Amino acid sequence: MAVTALAALHRKLFDETDGNKFARLKDRLLNKHGVDERQAVLDILVGYAKEGQLLHWRNFLMTDIIALAEPGECGDFFTACLDVPELSYWAVDGMLKSMGKAAYGPLVALAAKPEAKLSARAKAVKSLAVFSGQPFDRGLMLDPGHWKVEQLRLAEVLAWQADGYPAGQGFAAPATHASLAAPHSPLEKAAARLEKKLAARRRREQDLAQPSNWLAIADPADLRQIAAHWTLPEHYQRFLACYSPLRVSIDGEDYFQGLNLYGAAELVKRQHGYAWNPVTQESIAGWPEHYLVIADAGADPYCLDLGAITDGDAPVYTAEHGAGAWHFERHADSFVAFLTEIAAAA
């Protein structure tokens, strides 16, 4: 009897001992058979996660298994993985997708289990927070793998369990300015174009406990702090007030190291290491007095020249860091031109 293409690929996958070759075989399996033969591919991946010889790939396959599995599938497999240290981290999300609220009890037990890996315990708390809308993850790092044991908020989690697992309200999305939907001025149009691209990113991935890729209305307290330090050009001041970047990082050919565009909440602190030494509380010699760092690409600063404000705007200069001395070059004639460039590159 002829061996089917899927069966041949199945055998190759289990026989392969080279990790790079395994990765290519796995991708071929998903790309060629993942849609039309989803259940068979899912069974192959689950089988490898249980018994495959490349131990690190047993862990890596968990995200593919979660993506392929539909609600109600693989619940027993994911539950069993909670007791396998190498697989327990991603088993958390698999259980929630497969079992929904029925996973709450086992995941609370995992979170409260002191002998379990801290990363898996933290993942349980984080994923329970996201799934239930409870704010167990407020103010914490996006990656629970970096949490400390005292950040697990077990008392809150256990109280939630005792109360019957009530649904929470989650986190509200940052407030945005109405002009993003109906822009008129060049500044508004550039901001709206950037927002459209950031919104597409948010649809792919967003965690409102630590929102990213937003242009949000700034906190008035942050604007007052900025006003106490600098007199800003009108266009940039309006940008910060109405479209303050919230964890906005732009990747593209123009910014191969990624461009971090600063928001009102971080602008003062972002001058540290450029214009200001926070240890000695002194200005850093050699830094141009009127240059305000508004973004960086791999620590290369992009600065508004506050000494050259004209018609409500100012030119943007940039320089490479680590050269011993700053050698700035004019990058854009205005902030609006700079923002337009960023929006095109995003």
Question: In a few lines, what is going on in this structure?
Answer:
The protein has 346 residues and is α+β, with helices and mostly antiparallel strands. Helix content is 45%, strand content 12%. A 6-stranded antiparallel sheet has the order 3-4-7-8-9-10. A two-stranded antiparallel sheet has the order 1-2.
Number of domains: 2
The helix-and-strand class reads: alpha+beta
- Beta strand count: 10
- Biggest sheet details: 6 strands, antiparallel
Using only CA atoms, what is the Rg? Answer: 25 Å
- The largest beta-sheet arranges its strands as 3-4-7-8-9-10
The fourth-level CATH homologous superfamily of the largest domain is SMI1/KNR4-like
Oligomer: single chain
Helix content: 40-55%
Overall pLDDT metric = 96
CATH topology of the largest domain: SMI1/KNR4-like
Which ranges are low-confidence, i.e. pLDDT below 50, for 5 or more consecutive residues? none
Describe the model.
The chain has 346 residues and is an alpha+beta fold. It is built from 13 helices and ten strands. Strand 3 and strand 4 form a beta hairpin. It is elongated and about 70 Å long.
Chart the SSEs and their pairings.
Elements: H1 5-15, H2 19-33, H3 38-51, H4 55-68, H5 75-81, H6 88-99, H7 104-111, H8 118-132, H9 154-162, H10 186-204, E1 214-216, H11 220-229, H12 234-243, E2 244-246, E3 248-252, E4 255-261, E5 276-277, E6 282-283, E7 291-297, E8 300-305, E9 316-318, E10 329-332, H13 335-345
Antiparallel strand pairs: 1-2, 3-4, 4-7, 5-6, 7-8, 8-9, 9-10
Helix pairs in contact: 1-2, 3-4, 4-6, 5-6, 6-8, 7-8, 7-9, 10-13
